[in-house]
Structures
1.
Amino acid sequence: MENNGKETSEERKVSCGDVSKCFQLLESILDGEMGEEGKEVLKEKLDKCQPCFEHFHLEQAIREVLKTKCTKQPVPTQLADSIRQMIHESK
Amino acid sequence: MSDSQRRKYTQEEKNIIFDGEFMPHIDSMYNFAFRLTFDEDDAKDLVQDTYLKAYRFINSFEQGTNAKAWLFRILKNSFINEYRKKSKQPAKVDYQEVETYYNSDDVDFQGTTDLRADSVKDMLGDEISNALNALAVDFRTVIILADLEGFTYEEMAKILDIPIGTVRSRLHRARNLLKDKLRGYAQSMGYKTDEED
């Protein structure tokens, strides 16, 4: 993104006309729900709108930390065996 | 269900499906159950119940379709029907939290300007987990499904028995609530927020 010379914050508008609609759209794009069309809309928004640019990066960071940092609970070692045992008994 | 559907799989096929397509998801299933119940024994029971049901109703599973989504749907339904009933603690949406959300007009704008992507990246796993766990169960669930488990909106709609539009709006609300919690951490931990500039 940074390698695009035209993309500077000076060129972006400082307020977004429809924050609620734009942010929901950005979130759908981040969630991979918009396909190719989403990529074009995203580029347009990030190039031209500062609030959208900031929101996108915040949302991206949140998704990233949720995915990578949320503490995982180890599965009890006996669980898989006890499930197989219960199923075997139910047959 | 017709007889032909009921007898769809042979015993051997059932075992192959169960071991090959169902059991590999036990880790995700247990973590989902734990994030719903916050209790190791309850999570274990919930996962056990889910797998027993999955085996019992294995003929209604179409081979080649998404086993993980199918299992998550059973687990979610078991949680609602059985665990919530057993639990003394009412597991429902925190309506005050919801109302607070609806009553603030510019929640989107307020909700994002003073929390920085860099502060979020610096947070610890425990802080992220605590913020997620502090959300009401319906909001927590959509974030778990979307961000931790990577389900699509369409899969989530099937798991939760709600329209895709509701998935989208509930996720949006859930993320705004999560940001409120994260902002609280950011401020209390002295991470930079715009207000300090």
Note: The two ends of chain A are 58 Å apart (CA to CA).
2.
Amino acid sequence: MYELAYSRPESLTEALALLAEDEGAQALSGGQTLMPVLRARLAMPSRLVDLQRLPELAGIRLVEGGIEIGAATTHAEVAASAHVRAVLPALADLAGGIGDPAIRHRGTIGGSIANNDPAACYPSALLALGATVTTSRRTLAAEEFFTGMFSTALEPGEIVTAVRFPACQRAAYIKFRNPASRFALVGAFVAQLPSGYRIAITGGGHGVFRWREAEQHLDGGGAMAAITEDMLDLGHFTGDLHGSAEYRHHIAAVIVRRALSTLA
Amino acid sequence: MTAMTAPMGKFGQSVKRVEDSRLITGNGRYVDDLVLPGQTYAAFVRSAYAHARIGAIDISAAEAMPGVVKILTGQDLVDGGLFALPSGWNLNSVDGTPARVGVHHALAVDTVRFVGEPVALVIAETRGQARDAADSVFVEYEELPAVVDMAAALGPDAPQLHPDIPSNRAFTWDIGNAAEADAAFARATRRVSLELRNNRLVPNAMEPRAINAEWRAYDGSMTIYLTHQNPIGMRLFFMMLLGLESENHLRVVSPDVGGGFGSKAPCYAEELVVAFAARAVGRPVKWTAERTESFLTDAHGRDHVTTAELAMDDEGRFLGLKVHTLANLGGYISTSNALVVSYMYATMLCGQYAIPAVHAVVEGVYTNTCPVDAYRGAGRPEAAYVIERLAHLAAREIGVDQAEIRRRNFVKAFPHQTPLVYCYDSGDYEGCLDAALRLADYAGFEQRRAEAKARGKLRGIGLSAYVEACGIGPSKLLASLGGGGGMWESCEIRVQPGGSVEVLTGAHNHGQGHQTVYAQIISERFGIPMDRITVVQGDTDRIQAGTGTYGSRASVGLSAAVKSCEKIIEKGRHIVGYMLGIDPGEVDFAEGIYTSAATNQTVAFTEMAGAAHAASSFPTDKLEPGLVATTFFDPPNFTYPAGVHVCEVEIDPETGVTEVVAFNAADDFGNVANPLIVEGQVHGGLTQGIAQALWENAVYDPDTAQLMTASYMDYGMPRADSLPEFGLAFWPSPTPVNPLGMKGCGEAGAIGSPPAVINAVCDALGIAHVDMPAAPEKIWRLCQERQEAL
């Protein structure tokens, strides 16, 4: 790690000011990606602005039609939340399966989606459920928020404050774990919303995406069991040491079928 | 806790480890915890290339950076008289010529030979300053072609790593009898053959390597704090390589050590450089490896490519065995590796079977990879994997059950002289097999397979009957095979006037539970509570002599302890004889009390200890005061732990994921001093072995020789939630080679389990072989092929 300054502001205003006054400043929200990057000296921010104590980013609230989760909420808090379990149990399951206990007690939902790792779990839930992201400046639909791997619509100095999800009992997340990192080699979040089925795939390599062909197949009354990788563009997938593009492509269809079969 | 309630030790009891509460509450003291007056910190400049000629090294910018104390390059070390790193074992090729040892400078001089090889060292006032400056050392590299694959390295077009070593071949060594093996194959009516790869592993001790070295110019002496499995052995290495005057100019201290698995047994380049640097700057220098450095430079394990062939008669009786192994040495020969790939490996290729004719050839090959050395099992896992995979294939070939083929070939009488130097001490292989089969409900397996099939899963069962060699010794045999001898262990026991006991051992505990087991055994011998016994280790100023801990050598160290106990008790008999005015021959000792049947008087052990020091109740011209005893125990033979592992897997054919759903093991560790600790050792070993079979794999890019699995994002460590409950049973055949009848248990789990897992995977899929690790995509593709074949 290179030498840097560290601030832990007590309010959103203070945090925004710190980020605004220093171009090299970097927001820190759990640090489960950023800290290893810093340790490996792959980044050189002049200052870390720790968002963990901001009251504006805290808490899980029931709201009309769904639930709002403060950006600084840890995965462990989401997994254990009675509110989340009641209105969106699939999201609690997802949070409870991220990394390991140490990671779940440090990593946050805001940090995860702002980083938008192409193998992260949360982005698939936001996309499948049609969640909205509230930032220090605006509100964005998930589809606008995620713009490609490791990239989002966030502008410099803009902070995610909360994520709002619709209530949904008919939803499920299955992660096919990378055996080393336990990130998603492929992950699939499926949901049946009033508007129809939505399926989001993470881990493909280029960033989270919706499998619209499968959604249309289901909305058109097609059988769940008839969903195969033939309906899925192989171009969404890249390969690495842990699985070829072809294998990930195949696994995506398998876990989507399995996730769908669990819907009540 | 008071003395009244302090527990008494007893051999064979599951006593909880006395060291754990200190370690798990953060009160351990590791090398990195130690800060010395005037402390400086070191950071290495490492090669990003796997193979390159070193040009100019520009340190001017780095030297000018804040806090920089000194920068050293390879040439500085050569100029300063530092010797190159030695191979610690003299191995001869078939033609009688000695192994060709590539010159291994502690900092590369002209050429770098693997990614991460150290090129320069920066010493600075803080760790951060040292790292910052290391980033500013500019090294010119002329990149050379790199080679990872051993067959390619031996080929005509391969880049040559060392100037005087053509074909990158360090040695071609053999064992056994080629003519007899050929004759056996000519006679045989059935045979099976196999080509396999034993995957390369990264050891991953929890505590990374670390050293803090302090030079005292006024008397030319040095103290080295080092996380190591063998501090006393390292004193000799460092003394010689640094050119220090004598042993007493160097003190080596290994405080708490957070795991080793063999990776803290070699003499490493980095540690030697830091010691040299401490002398060069005249201030203490500390270096603690970062995890990336551990991945790149901790000696890796395994990495064999082997072809093996087993000859049989029609009943499946094993007649002959031929094995040819390419052993990847990495860029240099690490300290013990010439031993590991030869006498620790090929000697064990017969496994538990009476195979009359064997011939094995091992070629040691240099490649542009991290040097390889001992890793949990060190050669024996590689041997067990070869013979137990062949046994599985033999059962298929003959058409008999996996257990039956083993039963037909077991060694049945002991001692058993193998055709491969070693002589197995004791065992009951068939009894152990039956115990394992009962534990695993082997008879009920087909029902479980059918039940799994109904759920869409492919269930398989695999056996592995391993035998290994522990408690390495005797010294004379080791010397005759190419070692330096000296494979005894020492133990000094000091009884204080108040009756408390200090035990000084040259064995080194880094997770094995020595504090507990030494105390347990000595407590029982002396009849005093365990908390009166302190085990002292890991400091050459306190321990006179020792050889460290590896290869389950606790049986050797404990044997020395027991013999020292006997000497103390015997001296006590004489003291008590004087105290009671009777002949020492009439003094009995049991449960901490000396008694005289003749006079009906008693003297407690602690009273005797007081009397030994008071020296007033006996004539000191006939009996020396004090109560200290030392023993050097040189074992007459290795011990040969053995066992049978039974693994059941379920494979999801749609994803290729293999799950170990049951794992049972019956082991012969001889007498077991502390079943709780032994079970823990077995759990750890099984975990590492199962992980090798399913997840762990060090992968180098075939073209650039970059380590692609250099972090936990890509290197698959085992996790508790991926493992089943282990079913364990002991089936002891006590060894006659030491007074405790103990054989050792540290490596067994990692030796027996990989073939058990792969045999189960092959059974589930109905295939002959799949290389480790049985990763999901590989297994999925095999399932696809199987589906197409149906």
Note: The first helix of chain B runs from residue 20 to 24.
3.
Amino acid sequence: MTDLISLAAFAPLLALIGALVNGLFGRAFREPLPGVIASLSVGIGFLLSIIAFFALAAGEETRVSITLWPYLQAGSFELSLGFALDRLSLLMMLIITGVGFLIHVYSIGYMHGDEGFSRYFMGLNLFVAAMLLLVMADSFLLMFVGWEGVGICSYLLIGFWYREKLNADAARKAFIVNRIGDAGFLLAMFLTVTTFGTLDIQAVNEAAGALVFGSSVLGVIGLLYLLAATGKSAQLPLQVWLPDAMAGPTPVSALIHAATMVTAGVYLIARVAPLFAQTPAASAAVAWVGGLTALIAAFIAFSQTDIKKILAYSTISQLGFMFVAVGVGAYWVGIFHVFTHAFFKALLFLGAGSVIHALAGEQDVRRMGGLGKHMRVTGTTSLIATLAIAGVPLLSGFFSKDAILAHTATSELIADYGNLVLYAILLVTAAMTAFYMFRWYHRVFAGEERFPKKLRDSLHESPSVMTLPLVILAVCSVLAGYLGLPEFAFPNWIAHWLEPSVETPVSFLHLSTSLEWLLIGLSVVAAAVGLGLGYWVYERNRGRLVARLEESMLARLSRSGFGFDALYRAVFVEPAEGTASGLSSVDTDIVDRGLRAGASPVGLLARAAALLQSGYLRAYALAMLIGVLVFALIVSLSGVLS
Amino acid sequence: MTFPGPDINWVAFTPPLVLLLTAALAVLFALYQESGRLTAQLSLLGLVVAALFNLHLFQVVRQTDAFTSFGLRYLADTPAIAFNFVILIGTVLAVLMSYHYLERADLDHPEYYPLILLSACGAMVMVAAGDLITLLLGLEIMSLAVYVLSAWRQGSRESEEAGMKYFLLGAFASAFLVYGIALLYGASGHFVYAEIAAVLRGDGFDQLLLATLGGMLVLAGLAFKAALAPFHQWAPDAYTGAPTPVTAFMSVVVKAAAIAALLRIFSSVFPDLSPLVGQVFAVLVALTLVLGNLAALFQRGVKRMLAYSAVAHAGYLGLAVLAAGTVGTRAAIWYLTAYTLMNVGAFAVLSLIADRNDRGDDLERFAGLGRMKPGLAAALTVFLLSLAGIPPLAGFTGKILVFQAALQAGYVALAIIGIVMSVVAVVYYFRVVAVMYFREPEYELPAISSWATSMAIVVTVAGTVLLGIFPGWWYGLLQAGRQLLAGM
Amino acid sequence: MTLTVILIPLITALFLFFSEAADPLVRRFLGLLGTVSTFLVALYLPGTPGMSSLWLPGVNVYFALSPDGASAVLVLVASLVMIPTALYASGRVERRTGSFLALLLIMQAGLNGIFLAKDLILFYLFWELTLIPSLMMLGIWGGTKRRQAVQKYLIYAVTGSFLMLVGMLALRPLSGAASYRLEDLLAVTPALPAGTQLWIFLLFTLAFAVKLPLWPLHSWLPDFHEQNHPSGVADVAGTLYKVGGWGFFAWALPLLPGAAAVVAPVLLVLAAFTAVYAAVIATSQTNLKRLLAYASLSHMGLVGVGLFGLHLTGLSGAIYLLAAQMVSTGGLFLLSGMLYERRKTFELSEYGGLSRSAPALAAVTLFVLFTSIGVPGLANFPGEFMSLLGAFHASPWLAALATLSVIAAGVYGVNLYQRLYQDRETQPVADLRELELAVLVPILAGILWLGLAPGPQLERIEVQTRIIAQTVQPGEEIPMVTLGGRP
């Protein structure tokens, strides 16, 4: 069994090989060969992951360690690179390779004809490899390798069309913001080492469990990991890069900026669940960051007009939900939402990509509408995804989101930190989600056709290489939720599955069945209110209300992304640039000059010394005489004194 | 009443004797010669013979014991004989440099070479002097010849001025020296170092102040010859004005003799005087280091820069003198050996670049030398870097030995002053290197070829490099045998 | 055996000096012969016996070389970098190529000497020996303002090193050591009185801080790099020559532990400040070479951070980072030379969009840039990580400050890439040529080697690290750091 599980260790290697082949020889290949190679390498990885998954399910052990090779050495001991395959990491691997495979296949159609075709697939493969490393790592250090690796791949792919300055800028911004989070990760690791003496994740978890509940050093470690997580998962205050990241090709947005990389923060916190479970303060910080992010991002999503940016803010908002889940101590719930979200959000992005593809690059929803008639598969699947994310009962999003709401309301871990307020926020946000997602669907697929007439005739459904992944994802978006039905009344497979990996002493209030049903009811109401309001505003009211509100302050605030970019520009970017150029001139003008000025007396003295040499014999004789007289004086003085 | 017969140990002064005889022979020879070539060859022969005698002496001294003569008035111990080598090398190189130079500069008179030999002979006497009278004798033999040599370029204002300044100031300094000797004699009743020291150390000696003043005046007289500030001011002018080979000779041989004399006095007489002498000398050294190096910094003429640098090097030698008696003597000999090679080498290169009147040593003329005359430029680079104390050249090892000596003697502050001034020195030495290599040629240089000078350059380059890489050999030789100090 | 890594380059240099008239291929062959054979010897160096013979009696200076521990690692990595450097120089230096290569190899001989010397004065000898080639390379082949740069560099370097010499020479008489050999000094110098240790340590610090360099003694560095030959070859030599960290590691810290414990906290502040200061300045540079100069200065700050934390992990990491940055910074300078050949300028405003016409060049540049900014899995990361971690033990706040440089590094890294290869496309340029590919392959190999398997080299470095850790904190148990792995 262990051997079968270990097979999964080859998944990142396969992706890496795919990337290498495409990177070295890709330019010599003809389309679609690079895409096929890349898809196959991920596809086989998916198969291996499935095998490993079932092997783990069938076997006794819940965790398999694979040591690769020794890495660092300090003091008596060395750190080896190794994988830890457990239930959590295998589930993540399934998501990454599974959804990844579909998106690879989809990309063969989407990137058709692009001059960077092979470069694109190299980047995508490399990303999968790095992401797999991240989730498979048994130590924080190797996880950090993947952590930075996915950041780099994201950078490469956001700036894929690099000749457009905007794209390159977006890529740079994503990288730098991520780098801030990475610095947090580094500091977290340092503190971990100095506290626990190890970077092995399981060892840290065990040691953390043994520490005093609520110890302050744990809190600081937790906050530092939270900083890291906010960077990668685009949470407040580091959320600003994700909307810009939409500059990359749409499948990239689907894979990296919706389904996988951005969930790394959630994964990280779930991975160190025992640590966070010991520190309510840090956990509360996670939850509140998530809650506020969810609310604000949803608010911003109201007014966006770019088909992808709406989805980007929606992603940020949904990630906020996940943060709340892992913040309140419901770690499996967070992963559950990662799981369901991966399907419907990837589907939404791919649907959007299909639309952009059909409209020759158009991304503004104000110039769309009524596309559902022309693109039946895309329209239908997107509808399913929209309903799923909106939290319509019986679809996957409903189950995972409801689980988050329920656990927030009943959390004991952060009971002192206002979990009920958080619950209310999430409930409102859930309604808002349903509303803006309705708007999204309506503006794109329903209502009147606002795109240019000349496009109408060429309008077509995407090729099957693109639609097939849509269909598969749609099926998953419907079914994925049934793996995690409400525990109080139904079998819950995913909670049970993840239990050994995220086991903590965190407990939740035990509610009566009727109260549980009430909570579910509230969730349903929220979704219904959101959707109903959307229907009223956009279908019945035809957007007149919206048009009137267009100039209100709230609308402006929403459009500007809550003013974060402007704020950061004013508070961080410009001062930083100013500091940099200021320091630069300080360096050349003050430090350098200062040191040179320190040497200038030497020059003066030198000129003075040269002047002493007058050339006159009498002066020289005088100098000698003075010298001798001084000698005599010194001797006689010493005589007098003694 | 017994009358002690003269205690003359002829073996002890064979080298200076050979030089004296050669000089006499050469003068006779010169009566029948227009050109100096034959006298030069004769002088070289004499120098080689002297060197052979010296070598023999060295072997004997290393294996058995030092020689003395005239009681303790003439000492041929390891340091003295080693100094003889330095003097001989410096003289040979100066002769080689002069060989074609004199003709080229229209200064060729056969009397030139005997004078050089006489001066070297005087230097050797100074080195071996074990009493104040012998010291004075050697000093005057050496100096009188050099006064003439430095004014050798008749009709040239600079050269005559150089000779005149050197002579007058030299006389002035000699006066101090003589007066100092008188005072020391007056205080102790002896001329011989060992005896003076014995009296000073004896019970009930109450003339310490007088003796100290005498010591100070002797110090001033010797400091003049060694070009230590404030008695150094003649040096830059004399070095600049004299014909280049004479400059090379003066800056090396005269300095070696003066330092040797200082070392011996510092290790025998001075320790028993008031500690003031040492302190005053330390101040002189510091002053020399500072003034010599700083004044060299902005000189445009390379010859003048080297003249100041020669003053500065007297300061470094002074550091070793402070530690005289222990490792200082060996360090000073080693340093002087290296200094002789690199300094004469530098002047030799200069003599092939400057015009026949020794003008045109401006820094600008060296622009692009690395292109035009790669060999000369490389050689000059070696000399300058060695003078600057950059490893692995001889000057570096010399610097280590000298500074080690000073630090061992506890002169930390002085060492730091010396090192800081070395930084200044690196700047002015390296400036010449920079001009040679970093700039394009600007001037047409005279095509001068002289196998004799080239030979001198080759020898000095080889010496500078080899001594730098294998410093242990020469130092090992110096360690053998022993040094005669006060009181035997 | 040990001496050969010094002799081979020296002898090759001698031949190269006289190869000006020969065919360029002869020079290239000679350059490769010298560097490759040195590298091959260096591969077998670890574990071979050293040598020790009396060099200067009287003051007891020994010609003692030994390839133990960290010495062999640095020699090995420097020798690796020298191969592409010499190769590229043979193709890119137009004037007096033979002399240039000869100076480069003398430089290598001196560097190897610095790393291998086990006698304090011998160490100084090699320290100064390397100064001349680097000055000559800058002065003869440098840019229009080279003379000021030479002067500045000369004064900084010489002031520092000469003062250090005083400290060195005082060490033996004051401590009564039998010789200047490391082992003899180590036996007695740690027992010197605190005051003596302090002033000698400060003199050492002056020289090492200039060469490290540490703020504020770094200002020769940007000019030095800006004015060097545009091929970047001399800059690589300059990069290898950042031996101040080594000086602290091999000499100052172990010999004067008492002073180290007092001064290190101050130096730690300076180093952390340097790391951030330089990285921030690098973000605003518009000249490629100056940017790289500041970037490399920032790395040196991190080296200092590792050293002055005086913690086992950081000390090892600092030396590892020193080795790694030879490859990464060296690689970047070589790439700058390749870019200059295409555009004839280092002004970043003249570049843009080159990724399209030169995708391979772009890919390699990005790879090396990522190495340089400390992306894990690549050469710089292990050292950077361990340096910061070590400092974190000493002072979490300063380590956190230094960690900020990671962010700034990200900024200048991607800024640089964007300005060169992205945005509006400028005049197309040629992609990598054969020579350039040959030059870059060893660099890339080195980056992967050092990045993926730092274990063996760290193990070697630690042999020496332990000496410092033991002398600096005698009696205290050496902190055992478990970085993962199951005990």
Note: Chain B has a mean pLDDT of 88.
